[in-house]
Recover the amino acids of this structure.
C-alpha cells in the first residue's frame, strides 16, 4: 500500500483537474440533466449572443434546450454560429436556469469537425441583451451546478463557477470568459479537452486497446488520494475496492516476467474497474456526486484564554453644590472576566481605578445660559406689499442645555414676532435660464431630421413652458421631444432635445426661436439655419480612352461599346495650388489635401477599444465613434492652406478622383502629386458589416471594404469649395 502511494505521488499536481473531468465529462456527461427550468411567457424579445469556443467553432447549432434532451428541437429557440464562432439568439422566454446547448460545427483553426457538445447556464430576466459564451469551462460549471443543486437548493451557478475556478486556479469571471482572449484560460481549456480525450482512451477495453486499464486505475487512484487529502469520509465498500485496485496496480507494475500473466492481470484489473465505475455512477451513498458534496471535517477551535479587566460606571451627582468644600461624587468599579461575568477584585491585576473624587470647579458643568431663537417669517396675510398685510414667526427662549424655557429667563429684549409685508420684504421671482449656446447652422437641402440638445433651469423650481418655433415652416419644421408644462424633475439636471426637419426640396434661411416661460418671466434665444440648395454635380469621365478585347489587344473599329468607345461624362478639371498643396476639382467643387502626409500618414478607422466593442455588438454606438487617434480625427484637426474644416471623404467622393485610364497609381499625378498605390479610407460604413468601412485602392482605382481596426490605410482629406 505504501509503495503504490509513493509511486503515484507524481499525479497529485493534476488531481483536481482529473477529478473535475472524470466526474463531469463521464459521470454527468458535462451537465446533462432531466430537470427543467422555470419559464414564463413574455412579449419582450431578448437577445443572447457570444462565442462557441474550443477554438472558435463555426456552423455550430446553438439553442435553449428546454427539454434537456441534448438536441435542438423544432420548438426550441435555435441559431447557428457564424464564420467567427459568434452566435446571436432571440427569445421571449423569461426565467432562471436555462441550458444553452451548442454542438456540431467546425473548428475554424484546425478545420476539424466538433464532436463534443458544450453547455452553459443562462438566466433570462427581460434584459434586452445578454452575453454568454459556451466553452469547456462553462460546460463543467453547468454540470457541477446541475449535480449539486439537486441536493442543495441553495447551491447556485455562481457557487459552481467559484468552486471550479478555485480548482483550476482561475477567477470566477474566467469561467464564462472567451478563453481565446487569455493565454491562461486557453491553456486551461486545452488541458481539459486533452484530458477528456485521454480518459476516453483510458477507459477502453484492454482487449482492443493495449495498456489502457492502467491509466484508468491511475485516474481512480487520484480520486481516492484527493478524498484522503480533503478528509472526506469514504464508504467502506468503496474504500476496500480502491485498496484492491491499488494492490492490482502494484502487481501489474512489478510483474514483467510473463506476457501472459501480465495480460491476465490487466483483464482482471479492467473487470474490477468496470464494476467500480458502475458503483461510482450509481445513486448509492458512496457515489462520486455524494462523495464530492461531503464537507471536510472541521478542526476543533481551541478554547480562548480568560482575561480580566476593570469596568467603570458613570460618575454620580455631587453630594453638595459643585465646587464647594467636601462635595464629592462616586462611581462603581467592577472586575469583569472576558466571558462577561463579574468576579472578585483580586482577579484583576491592574490597579483599581478610583471610586470617589472631589467635585472641584474643573469638573463642574458650565453655567446654563439663555438666548432667543427666531424662526423664518411666514406667508403674508394678504398680497405682499398691500396695506395691513402682515407675516409672523416664532420666537422662543432656549437654555444652553437645549430646553425651551419661559420668556422671563432670557434677559435680552424679545425680537418681534410680527411685521408688515412691505415691498422690500416680498420674495422676488427668478426668471428661467437657457444654458445652451446655439450658433447659426448650415444644413443641406433634403437632409431630413437633425437632433439638438437643450438645457434650461429655474432657480425657483417653477413649472415651465418651453417652445421652439421656426420662422418658416415651409423650409424647416420643429419637433420638440417634451410635453409642457415641465415640472422641476423634468428639467432639473436633465438634457432636453428637439428635432429640426427640412421640408423636401425647400431651401433658404430660417430663424429658430427658443422661449422658456414660468408665467411671470421668460428667457429667449434664437439662431439662424441656412438650408443650402442641393446641387448635384455632373458625372465625370472615367478616364478610360481605349477599348480592349479579351486578349488585351486594343480595338479601334468601334465594335466594343465600352467606356473607351462612348467617352461619356464631363472632362476632369483640376487646378493645383503648389504653395498650399491643395488640388481643386472644378467639376465637383471639392478641394483635396495633397501635401506629403497624403503618402505617409496611416490611420485606423476606429480605436482598438471602440473596435472591440463594435465587434461584440454591431448595434453599439462605438461602431461610429471616430474619436481618438483615427482617420476622421486626423482630418478634423488638419489645418492646411488656412482652412480648418477638412473631413474624411465619402467613398463616392474618393472614387470620383480615380482615373481609370491610369494604373499604379490610378490617379492624375499631374495634379495629385502625393499618392501611394494603396488603400485610402473613406467615411462610409458598410451597410451589412458595421465593423467594416469602404476604401479605394489607388493601385487600380477599385473600391473595397475592410475592418475598421486596420492601421495601415492612408488618409486624403477633403473640404467643400468656396
Amino acid at each position: 500500500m505504501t509503495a503504490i502511494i509513493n509511486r503515484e505521488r507524481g499525479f497529485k499536481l493534476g488531481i483536481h483537474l482529473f477529478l473535475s473531468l472524470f466526474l463531469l465529462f463521464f459521470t454527468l456527461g458535462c451537465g446533462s440533466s432531466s430537470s427543467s427550468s422555470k419559464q414564463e411567457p413574455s412579449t419582450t424579445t431578448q437577445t443572447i449572443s457570444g462565442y462557441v469556443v474550443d477554438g472558435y467553432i463555426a456552423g455550430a447549432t446553438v439553442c435553449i434546450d428546454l427539454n434537456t434532451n441534448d438536441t435542438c428541437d423544432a420548438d426550441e429557440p435555435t441559431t447557428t454560429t457564424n464564420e467567427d464562432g459568434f452566435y446571436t439568439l432571440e427569445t421571449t422566454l423569461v426565467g432562471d436556469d436555462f441550458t444553452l446547448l451548442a454542438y456540431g460545427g467546425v473548428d475554424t483553426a484546425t478545420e476539424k469537425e466538433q464532436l463534443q457538445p458544450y453547455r452553459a447556464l443562462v438566466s433570462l430576466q427581460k434584459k434586452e441583451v445578454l452575453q454568454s459564451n459556451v466553452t469547456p469551462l462553462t460546460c463543467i460549471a453547468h454540470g457541477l451546478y446541475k449535480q449539486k443543486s439537486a441536493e442543495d437548493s441553495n447551491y447556485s451557478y455562481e457557487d459552481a463557477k467559484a468552486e471550479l475556478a478555485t480548482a483550476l486556479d482561475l477567477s470566477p469571471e474566467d469561467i464564462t470568459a472567451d478563453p481565446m482572449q487569455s493565454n491562461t484560460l486557453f491553456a486551461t481549456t486545452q488541458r481539459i479537452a486533452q484530458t477528456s480525450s485521454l480518459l476516453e482512451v483510458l477507459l477502453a477495453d484492454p482487449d482492443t486497446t493495449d495498456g489502457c486499464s492502467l491509466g484508468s486505475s491511475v485516474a481512480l487512484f487520484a480520486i481516492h488520494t484527493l478524498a484522503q487529502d480533503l478528509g472526506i469520509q469514504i464508504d467502506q465498500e468503496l474504500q476496500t475496492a480502491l485498496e484492491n485496485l491499488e494492490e492490482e496496480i502494484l502487481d501489474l507494475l512489478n510483474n514483467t516476467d510473463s506476457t501472459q500473466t501480465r495480460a491476465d492481470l490487466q483483464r482482471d484489473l479492467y473487470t474490477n474497474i468496470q464494476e467500480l465505475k458502475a458503483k461510482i455512477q450509481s445513486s448509492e451513498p458512496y457515489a462520486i456526486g455524494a462523495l464530492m458534496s461531503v464537507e471536510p471535517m472541521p478542526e476543533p477551535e481551541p478554547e480562548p484564554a480568560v482575561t480580566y479587566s476593570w469596568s467603570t460606571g458613570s460618575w454620580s451627582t455631587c453630594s453638595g453644590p459643585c465646587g464647594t468644600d467636601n462635595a464629592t461624587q462616586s462611581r462603581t468599579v467592577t472586575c469583569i472576566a472576558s466571558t462577561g461575568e463579574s468576579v472578585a477584585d483580586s482577579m484583576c491585576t491592574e490597579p483599581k481605578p478610583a471610586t470617589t473624587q472631589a467635585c472641584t470647579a474643573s469638573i463642574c458643568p458650565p453655567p446654563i445660559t439663555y438666548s432667543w431663537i427666531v424662526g423664518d417669517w411666514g406667508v403674508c396675510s394678504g398680497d405682499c406689499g398691500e396695506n395691513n398685510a402682515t407675516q409672523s414667526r416664532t420666537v422662543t427662549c432656549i437654555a444652553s442645555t437645549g430646553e425651551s424655557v419661559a420668556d422671563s429667563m432670557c434677559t435680552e429684549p424679545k425680537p418681534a414676532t410680527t411685521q408688515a409685508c412691505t415691498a422690500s420684504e416680498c420674495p422676488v421671482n427668478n426668471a428661467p435660464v437657457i444654458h445652451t449656446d446655439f450658433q447659426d447652422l448650415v444644413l443641406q437641402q433634403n437632409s431630413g431630421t437633425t437632433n439638438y440638445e437643450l438645457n434650461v433651469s429655474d432657480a425657483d423650481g417653477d413649472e415651465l413652458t418651453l417652445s421652439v418655433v421656426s420662422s418658416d415652416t415651409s423650409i424647416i419644421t420643429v419637433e420638440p421631444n417634451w410635453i409642457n408644462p415641465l415640472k422641476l424633475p423634468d428639467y432639473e439636471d436633465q438634457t432636453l432635445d428637439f428635432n429640426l426637419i427640412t421640408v423636401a426640396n425647400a431651401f433658404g434661411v430660417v430663424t429658430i426661436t427658443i422661449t422658456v416661460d414660468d408665467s411671470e418671466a421668460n428667457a429667449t434665444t434664437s439662431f439662424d439655419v441656412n438650408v443650402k440648395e442641393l446641387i448635384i454635380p455632373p458625372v465625370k469621365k472615367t478616364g478610360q480612352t481605349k477599348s480592349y478585347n479579351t486578349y488585351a489587344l486594343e480595338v479601334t473599329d468601334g465594335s466594343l461599346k465600352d467606356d473607351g468607345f462612348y467617352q461619356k461624362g464631363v472632362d476632369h478639371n483640376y487646378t493645383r495650388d503648389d504653395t498650399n498643396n491643395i488640388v481643386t476639382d472644378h467639376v465637383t467643387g471639392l478641394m483635396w489635401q495633397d501635401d506629403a502626409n497624403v503618402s505617409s500618414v496611416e490611420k485606423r478607422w476606429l480605436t482598438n477599444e471602440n473596435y472591440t466593442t463594435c465587434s461584440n455588438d454591431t448595434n453599439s454606438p462605438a461602431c461610429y465613434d471616430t474619436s481618438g487617434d483615427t482617420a476622421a480625427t486626423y482630418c478634423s484637426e488638419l489645418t492646411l492652406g488656412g482652412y480648418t474644416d477638412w473631413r474624411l471623404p465619402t467613398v463616392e467622393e474618393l472614387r470620383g478622383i480615380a482615373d481609370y485610364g491610369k494604373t499604379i497609381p490610378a490617379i492624375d499625378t499631374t495634379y495629385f502629386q502625393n499618392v501611394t498605390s494603396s488603400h485610402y479610407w473613406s467615411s462610409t460604413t458598410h451597410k451589412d458589416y458595421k465593423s467594416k468601412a469602404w476604401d479605394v485602392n489607388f493601385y487600380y482605382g477599385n473600391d473595397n471594404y475592410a475592418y475598421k481596426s486596420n492601421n495601415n490605410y492612408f488618409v486624403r482629406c477633403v473640404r467643400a469649395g468656396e
